[in-house]
Design a protein that fits this description.
mainly alpha; 77% helix; TLCD; TLC-dom; TLC domain-containing protein; transmembrane helix
Amino acid sequence: MPDLAQNFVQLVIPATTGYALLHAAAEMLLVPLLDARRVAALSVGDRIDLGEKLSSTLHSLHVGIGALWLLLAKDGPWSNDTLHPYPDSARHLLADHAGYTLYDLLVMLAKPRESGSMWAHHLLGAAGALAMLYYKQAAYFPVAFLATELTVPVVNALWMFDRFGGGNRRSRLVLVGLRALAYVLFRLLAGPLISVYAIKHHQPLPGMVANSTMELPATRTFASARWQSFWAAFCLFPMPVWLGCTFNLVVFSGLNVLWTHAAMRAFLRELGRGRHGKRH
């Protein structure tokens, strides 16, 4: 617990404060540059969201690129073991994500309404990041999911275009298409890919499987043996770690599929409108 408290004071709270200051800076310096009539016409929720777009974009680029760097770097921290390494860069990414999520939860509380899926995403994300700062085990999973945050910049760009962009249909079609592409690339298969990579690059420590209390069925293939070895080692962690990671993996994978489906449907609708407009 002292480590969690130290991380919370030294990293999480400064991150929350920093993103709140970015929000205030956007309100003071950037919002006045927009069309005042359109700003005044925004709904209460959209008006609150307007100042949040700078913070969310910078956060997504920071943690998304940072996560990809750790995952794709040659001889990265999880290239030979996806369960035990806890690099300091992962600690900082998780603390930044926890700090941002706490800031964004306050923004969501100020709005009249917010979707249930967004509440689930934020609450589970904050809980998972804070839990990793305490347990320091299986950090690969929450860090890997941070790469999905790279869909946020194009989502924000489309949000801004719809409210301040002038209504050019072709430009909107491009943005809606880019959003769908981003969701397909970064979210649709994130859960399965993260799981396959974790099992493929798992190297059990000596004696770890022998110490497991789980009964494993007879293995017939190398793939099933590797999966059983991974699961046995995974379940040696404290229950909040392996159960929390599994729960978040399932929930986030489901949300990513639902959001990708919605983004693809929106793109197909926009494409259909464009074709219909040309015929008339």
